[in-house]
Amino acid sequence: METRQNLMSFLFLAALLLAGGCGENKSESVAAAPPTAPLVPSSTPVERLRPTPSKADETLTVSGPLIVEHQVEVTAQRDGVLEKILFDAPARVREGTILARLDDRQISANLEAARAKSRSIADDLKNWEAEAEVLKADYARAQRLWDLGLITQEQLQHAQYKAESDQWDIKRVSEMLVGAHEEERSLELELEKTKITAPFDGLIARRYVREGQSITKGERLFWVTAERPLRLRFTLPERFLGHLKKDQELPLTSPDVPLEKHAVKIMEISPVVDPSSGTIEILTELVGKAGNLRPGMSASVRVDYPR
Asked: Do 199 and 223 form a contact (C-beta atoms < 8 A)?
């Protein structure tokens, strides 16, 4: 009987402990729940926040190398041996300045021979023309004698044929003289090709050959570049089409001369969009003095985004 009472007491205490534990869990669950957000009255408008663009977001910076319109590699126009170099990099030269010469002794000798041949043919032509005048006079005298009945018709025809044939000889020698002059002209052109000249006012940026070197036709000899005007070509997204104008000025800077500030003006705007990249091409030219800017330097231009 006593054992039964002890068992009942144990079960009663266990039930009380179990009830107490459930109550504590429920309290913790309620405390962990987040507070309910206050309701906004329907009459109060809700303002949406919009990001304010920064100064960097309002402009686009594009970069590229500074270029000039005239930049060429001067090549040999004929085979030969480079006899003399008269100017070297980085010399500034004017258009037509002789930069170097090829050995021209053989061509000069051939040209002198051709000129002598032309002079000889010209003298022959003068002799034929003088003889033609004599034969023309003989034919005129034969006609008068024929009219007087002093010579036969055969003699008259003989004088006529001699005068006419001489005219054909004059024509033949005249053609020979033309051919001789053409040969002269051809050799003069070949002689000109032995002179390596500057194609425009500019700067010799590089020399590729040395004196005494045998060169072939088409071999590069010098690299000559103009120094002005400096230009910058770049591309922009198609959204800029219609928002930029010709002669519009844009600020330009270069990391090579960070203390200098320049401006370029728009020279050309591509009227079409490149379908592969969705861009338009812009060509600009430096405004004012170039300062320390040089062709080939990297430069950057800032362009405002269309609004």
From this structure: no
Contact 101, 118 (CB under 8 A): no
- Nearest 10 degrees: Cα torsion 239, 242, 248, 249: 0
Of 28-37, 172-181, 298-307, which gets the smallest average pLDDT?
A: 28-37
Q: What is the pLDDT of residue 292?
A: 92
Domain edge (last residue) among 174, 193, 212: 193
What 50-54 contacts at long range (C-beta under 8 Å, 24+ apart), as own/partner pairs, is none
Chain-centroid distance, C-alpha 132: 61
pLDDT number for residue 22: 45
Residue 204 has pLDDT above 60, yes or no: yes
**Is residue 18, in this structure, part of any structural domain at all?**
no
Q: In angstroms, rounded to a whole number, what is the distance separating the alpha carbons of residues 253 and 251? A: 7
Quote the domain boundaries for residue 153: 104-193
Distance (Å, rounded) from C-alpha 142 to C-alpha 267?
A: 80
Distance CA 69, CA 233 (A): 11
What's the residue count for the chain?
A: 307
Average pLDDT, the chain: 83
Residue 99: is its pLDDT beyond 90? yes
- Token pair listed for 252: 């330009």
